[in-house]
Structures are given as structure tokens and as C-alpha cells.
Specification:
By secondary structure, the chain is an alpha+beta fold. It is built from eight helices and 14 strands. The chain is elongated, with a radius of gyration of 57 Å.
């Protein structure tokens, strides 16, 4: 036995077409509403796409249709934080990392690796610097800088770092041209007023003056000489000259040390001799003045009474002689006496006519 199924009767053709039209119109209306919502959402997202966040280590420049927004530097530089801008390409936000310290390498003044084994220095291929005493050196320099003026850094040069490299190379060449080789290798030299000038500082100041003239908005924070050596072709001759200069400096230091040891002793001896001579002069002068004063007094008395003064001087002189003699012998007139040279030799008398008398003083 087969199952019997019943099916509804189909609607009339006119009713079927109207129902289908309603379904299509409702679908189209729903699609248009979705498209409208998407368009509104896209429009909102488009107008909000210009809103950006400026990081703490940077500032931003805002250009509208290619023209910088703002009339003064304070208005042109946008500080860190939320920046409300129109969407691209109406507005363009240019980020400048002003608090970041950048570094560029000046490697055009060093030896080319392709000519390391060459016995000839090629001025076109190899880099070098010429010192003031005609020595040839090669160096590798690093320049560290910060952006001080974002507007000048971005708009005054298409490739500011390339300009910085060229200016740094020129500053290094010009500065070392006024230094001799030994001072350049030591990276410092002594000035006439007992001050020390450092080569990195001199190069940095020269480079900063060049950048200020070009208005690039960059501030050089440091110049580092990673390597500074003579060229391989002149290394042996340079080492010989350097050895002789070191020998000269050593002998100079030895001479200075000898002078430092000898001069204080000579000064002390001179001071002692001068003091002794001054003291001797004072004593002699004082004694001479006293004798002159005494002589003047005696001479005045002598002029008043010559005989009395003469007798007194004679007696005083004889008294001094008597006191200085330990033993006296009175010899009769006409007696001849021979005095021995020393106490060990006995006294010899050639002739004694009359006996002598001894008397103790």
C-alpha cells in the first residue's frame, strides 16, 4: 500500500509576483541601510584618522595641503600628546625625535679596505688628513647630535645627515691642519697660557659654527675619534720619528728632574753663603766702626797731651805683651842668644859673657 500525500495548491500567479517584489524591495532596503551605516562608519573613521599621539621623546610638525600650520615657531611645533589633525592627504603629521641622540660615522677619512696591502697611497681612493707639520694621518670619527630646531631640520635640507657628514669631514680636516702630528695623536695640545686644548672639543666647536651658518637645526653633542693612526705606507718612518721624539722627551724629563733636584740645593747653599757673608760684613763693619770711634777719641786726647797718651799707649801695649808671654828671661846687654825652633830641641848658646837671671812673670 502506498502513502498518499496532499500538497497545497499554488497561489495564483499575480499573488506570487507581488510577494516576490515585496521580498526584493525589503532586501534592497536592508542592504541600503547597511551600506549607509558602513558609509557613515567609514566617513567617521576617515575624519578621525588624523587624530594621532605624539610620543614623549618627539614633537610633530603639521602641514595642511603641504603648508606648515602655524605662524610662529611655538605654534608650528606640536608638543607631545594627542594631536587633532585632519585626515591624510589634507593634513600630514611629521614626527621629529628631538630628545633622541643620533650618531653618524665619518668614514671617508680612513683607509679604503681595498688598498690595505698597497704600497702607494691613492689620494682619490683613500681618505686622509694632513697635519700642520706635513704628517699624513687617517682617522675614523663619530659625530653625535640632537635636533634643536625641528622646522629647520626638516625643511632647510633634503638630506640633513648627509650635509652633516660633509660639514664634519671639513671641520676635522681644517682643525687638524693647524695641529702637529704628536698633538693630534694625543688628541690634545698645550697652549701658551698653560691651558690644554682638546682636539674633539675644537672639532665640535668648528662643526657647530658651520651648522649654525647653514641653519640646519642640529646641535652637536660630542665628537669621538674612534681611531687615528698614520698611513700604512708611512707607519715605519712615523714610528722611527716618534721613537726619537720619545727619546728627546725622556732626556728632557731627566734634565728637568736633575734641575729640580739641583736647584733647591744650590738655592740653599746660596742662601747660606749670603747669610754668612752678610753676617761677616756686619761684624767687620761694626768692629771697624768701634775702632774708628776709639781711634778718634784717642787721637783727640793725643792732640791735647801727646806725651801722656804716648806713655799710656806704650805701657798698655807692654802689659798686653807681658800677659801673652808664658815665661820671661832677662838677658844682659851684649849677650847673643839662639832660639831653638821647637821645645824638643835643646837651646844652644853660642857665647855667654855674663850669667842670666830668670824671673817668673
Amino acid at each position: 500500500m502506498s502513502d498518499s500525500r496532499t500538497f497545497p495548491s499554488p497561489p495564483p500567479p499575480s499573488q506570487n509576483r507581488s510577494k516576490r517584489s515585496e521580498q526584493i524591495s525589503s532586501g534592497v532596503g536592508a542592504g541600503m541601510r547597511i551600506i549607509g551605516l558602513l558609509a557613515a562608519l567609514l566617513m567617521i573613521l576617515f575624519w578621525c584618522s588624523g587624530i594621532t599621539m605624539v610620543q614623549p621623546n618627539e614633537v610633530a610638525l603639521l602641514t595642511r595641503f603641504g603648508k606648515l600650520v602655524g605662524t610662529t615657531p611655538a605654534e608650528q611645533v606640536q608638543p607631545p600628546g594627542i594631536l587633532l589633525a585632519l585626515p591624510y592627504p589634507i593634513d600630514e603629521v611629521i614626527r621629529i625625535p628631538v630628545k633622541e641622540e643620533r650618531e653618524v660615522a665619518i668614514d671617508r677619512l680612513q683607509l679604503n679596505p681595498a688598498s690595505s696591502n698597497s704600497a702607494v697611497l691613492d689620494p682619490i681612493r683613500d681618505g686622509y688628513v694632513l697635519c700642520g707639520d706635513q704628517h699624513i694621518l687617517q682617522t675614523n670619527v663619530r659625530v653625535k647630535y640632537r635636533i634643536s630646531d625641528p622646522v629647520a631640520f626638516h625643511f632647510h635640507a633634503d638630506q640633513p645627515e648627509r650635509v652633516l657628514k660633509e660639514a664634519a669631514a671639513a671641520a676635522v680636516i681644517q682643525t687638524i691642519a693647524g695641529w702637529n702630528a704628536m698633538d693630534t695623536l694625543r688628541l690634545q695640545r698645550s697652549l701658551s697660557d698653560e691651558q690644554v686644548e682638546r682636539l674633539p672639543v675644537a672639532v665640535r666647536e668648528s662643526l657647530q659654527r658651520r651648522l649654525d651658518q647653514l641653519s640646519l637645526g642640529m646641535e652637536v653633542s660630542a665628537v669621538e675619534f674612534r681611531e687615528i693612526i698614520p698611513t700604512p705606507q708611512l707607519a715605519e718612518a712615523f714610528e722611527n720619528v716618534q721613537s726619537e721624539q720619545i727619546h728627546i722627551e725622556t732626556r728632557k724629563r731627566e734634565a728637568e728632574g736633575f734641575a729640580a733636584r739641583t736647584l733647591p740645593k744650590a738655592e740653599a747653599d746660596r742662601y747660606t753663603l749670603v747669610n754668612e757673608a752678610t753676617r761677616f760684613q756686619t761684624d767687620v763693619t761694626t768692629k771697624a766702626d768701634e775702632e774708628v770711634t776709639l781711634f778718634d777719641k784717642v787721637y783727640a786726647q793725643y792732640l791735647a797731651n801727646p806725651d801722656l797718651v804716648w806713655s799710656r799707649l806704650y805701657l798698655e801695649t807692654m802689659e798686653q805683651i807681658m800677659q801673652s808671654v808664658g815665661r820671661m828671661k832677662f838677658v844682659a846687654p851684649g849677650t847673643r842668644i839662639v832660639i831653638s825652633p821647637g821645645p824638643s830641641t835643646p837651646t844652644k848658646r853660642s857665647a855667654v859673657s855674663t850669667p842670666t837671671q830668670e824671673q817668673a812673670p
